[in-house]
Design brief:
This is UDP-N-acetylglucosamine 2-epimerase (non-hydrolyzing). Its EC number is 5.1.3.14. With 373 residues, this protein is an alpha/beta fold. The protein is built from 16 helices and 13 strands. Strands 3-2-1-4-5-6-7 form a seven-stranded parallel beta sheet, sandwiched between helices. Strands 10-9-8-11-12-13 form a six-stranded parallel beta sheet, sandwiched between helices. It is globular. The mean pLDDT is 95.
Length: 373
């Protein structure tokens, strides 16, 4: 059997690794070992419970006020001892978190091959998103198997000199995850979401949390949303507010007393995915939502000045508004008021695959390792 260890620590990683873990567990030729760092404890546990994943190893590193150096050092030392005991044939890390980079570095020091799931994303600005851009670039230098979601990701890796034989185009595992949780008759635990009139209002779902948007950019974002609902009586907004106190302070300043703005607590993955399926438009500074929403036919307005997911822009499923108040208003109102503009984005072809990414990853690992055993 091939011994495969998956390492992840945050909710976004867990969402995208969960269907892969299930695919590894289902294959009789693979011994699957799950190691979590709990870089995000509570949010990670929600996903583990949803997908019924029980980690063999849990570093439980989360601490109040933890810095990037704290996370890196605790993950590096914790995984070092686990790898010494388990000696997997390959470890799999996902994307661009500090857990991802530190896990890959620990494997490199132990001379264990690294597979990088969702490889090849690049914004080409090492400080935006921070620290994610550098995390994924450094992980890419360590990895020997690069599971790239899109042709654009493949191109980025080739430009950096990665051997073509090490790159496998798979699609994005988030589509696999979505297929596992979306339900047409889904009922929310929060009854506010069940009672919202999705048919007679244009409903906007918003998320905003990026550290680079704190301050004036976020003031502009929330000011734009307030102007949109004030100017358009048939528009409502649902905003699960991030737990960051700085985000909450700015959100309450602009939106607390706004008509038709529903400020709710953060949602677990399953209700959030099903909420994405119900709304009309999504405004976000998140990366993962840029991949999920196109699979659901929802136009995405990106509240950032650049994106490491340009294929979504090229496909027409995503538009970059940046953080200028008037630009956000203009782009969003165009989607609200111009039916043809809305349909063009909603009906654009999803660039992130067919929901079979995990099977392609498992097959690639088997092709690489079975003949060596």
């Amino acid at each position: 059997m091939i011994k495969v260890m998956t390492i992840f620590g945050t909710r976004p990683e867990a969402i995208k690794m969960a269907p892969l873990v299930k695919a590894l567990e289902a294959d009789p030729q693979i011994e699957s070992i799950v190691c979590v760092t709990a870089q995000h404890r509570e949010m990670l546990d929600q996903v583990l419970d949803l997908f019924k994943i029980v980690p063999k190893h849990d570093l439980n590193i989360m601490a109040a006020g933890q810095t990037l150096s704290d996370i890196t050092s605790r993950v590096l030392k914790g995984i070092e001892s686990i790898l010494a005991v388990e000696a997997p044939d390959i470890i799999l890390v996902h994307g661009d978190t500090t857990t991802t980079f530190a896990g890959a570095l620990a494997a490199f020091y132990a001379q264990i091959p690294v597979g990088h799931v969702e490889a090849g994303l690049r914004s080409h600005n090492i400080y935006s998103p921070f620290p994610e851009e550098m995390n994924r670039s450094l992980t890419g230098r360590i990895a020997v198997m690069h599971f790239a979601a899109t042709e654009g990701n493949v191109t980025n890796l080739k430009r950096e000199g990665v051997d073509e034989t090490q790159i496998i185009k798979t699609g994005n595992t988030v589509i696999d995850a979505l297929k596992m949780v979306i339900k047409e008759d889904y009922v929310f635990d929060d009854d506010i979401l069940n009672q919202i009139d999705y048919k007679n209002y244009k409903t906007i779902l918003m998320t905003a949390h990026r550290r680079e948007n704190l301050g004036e950019p976020m003031e502009n974002i929330f000011g734009a949303v307030r102007a949109i609902v004030d100017r358009n009586e048939h528009v409502q907004v649902i905003f699960p507010i991030h737990l960051n106190p700085a985000v909450r302070e700015i959100a309450n300043k602009h939106l607390k007393d706004a008509d038709r703005v529903h400020l709710i607590e953060p949602l677990d993955y399953e209700p959030f995915a099903n909420l994405e399926a119900k709304v009309d438009i999504i405004l976000t500074d998140s990366g993962g939502i840029q991949e999920e929403a196109p699979a659901l036919g929802k136009p995405v307005v990106v509240l950032r000045t650049e994106t490491e997911r340009p294929e979504a822009v090229q496909a027409g499923t995503v538009v970059i508004a940046g953080v200028d108040k008037n630009t956000i208003i203009d782009i969003t109102e165009n989607l609200i008021l111009d039916e043809k503009a809305y349909e063009k984005m909603a009906e654009a072809v999803n660039p992130y695959g067919d929901g079979k990414a995990c099977l392609r990853i498992v097959d690639a690992i088997k092709a690489q390792f079975l003949h060596k055993l």
